[in-house]
Design goal:
It is built from one helix and 40 strands. It has 462 residues and is mainly beta.
Amino acid sequence: MKFTKHLKNVFCGLVLSIFLASPAWATIITIDPVDYLGQWIIQGQTGINKGKQAVDLAAPGNYTLDIGNSRTQFQVDASGNTSTTFTDTYTASGNTITFLNTPVIFDPVGYAGLYDLEASNSFTGLSGLQTVTLVPGLFVTLDIGNSRTQFQVDASGNTSTTFTDTYTASGNTITFLNETIEIDPGAFAGFYDLESANQRINLTGLQTLELVPGLSITLDSGGGRGNFGILASPCSINPPGGITVGGTFFGISCVVSNNPPVADAGPEQIVEQQGPTGSSVVLNGSASSDPDDDSLSFNWTGPFGTATGEFPNVTIPAGIHIITLVVNDGIVDSDPDSVQILVQDTTSPAFTFNQLVSKLWPPNKKMVLSATLSDVSDAVTVNPVVNISITSNQGSSADWNITQSGGTWNTELRADRLGNDTERVYDISVSVTDDAGNVGTTTATVKVPHDQGQNKGGGKKK
């Protein structure tokens, strides 16, 4: 009985000692990378993990979670609940850490080698166009050949980088900025490797390759190794001309590839004719383009002869004309593009018509100057055709007279009417016509009253 009581006291003391020595309790935390296929590590834990895992952690505690080349932290409280300030990278809810993933597109364009993405996390040996699920809010390492670069992905899936000479980071896409390079081993007849880790091996003779600028590239001839670099926009080699490897000089140069420019002669235009020789027209070649963003020169041909410039001001005669544009990027001409320009005269001639009287009295049969026409002009036609016609309800053409003195036309009317009839009415019609058939017109009416209104009863005056 005494021995049992003693054993009980020893056991209670042991439990109390363990309790006092272990203030933290073990709890299970779930790490859920969702569709992220790379590896992750919780510092202080054994092993590298992939996929969804349940991990025993002491609570409370602060923990470091390494994803790729970036380090994050989360906390576990005494109840086993997680929290974090890396809210762009993963959520911490209850006892679960859930990665906030986003797809990123890698487009090497014409680069045929391999590239590694976060090599420690199994994204190795990638080639061609790839879409990879990554964790946002972190720096991601992209190895191309012997060089290491970095980019970042934000919570919206947008990429950014400081390696702007090597690739563009736009939206969720990384696009390699390649240059075409020619390698000339000269008299060297053996094999040589270029970026051997990326399968540019067993090359022989003259080679033309697409390589990524802004990096250090290794050439291995078997008898030695040497490095060179490529600078972009415009392409150049460092060191210039090439490198000597194992006693052999390898010439390295940029191959300037040129895409022809595209001419755009602008929209069709309808222009009012300004003068006898035509009109001044501003041509518009601003929509012309060059795939390589080269500067362009502009060469126009048409009825004016030739003109240069993006917006030349030329004189085009009346009618429909086809204007042709060819642009040049300093290397090659574009295919020609044409635009139709219509120059037309739609404006009537101008003139001044003065009606001097509207009533002739007394009816003394004299010829009276009743109207004048002057200041006849037209922007295009030098001598527009003037036509003045007169009609009357009484009399004949002997009762009016039209004369011209210089640039003035005078109209005289006879002050007369039939004594046994109503008033006489003269109708004057004026038209001025240019060579294009545009007509300016006006009319006037002049009356010779029967009387002055003393005999409004209608009988004859005595």
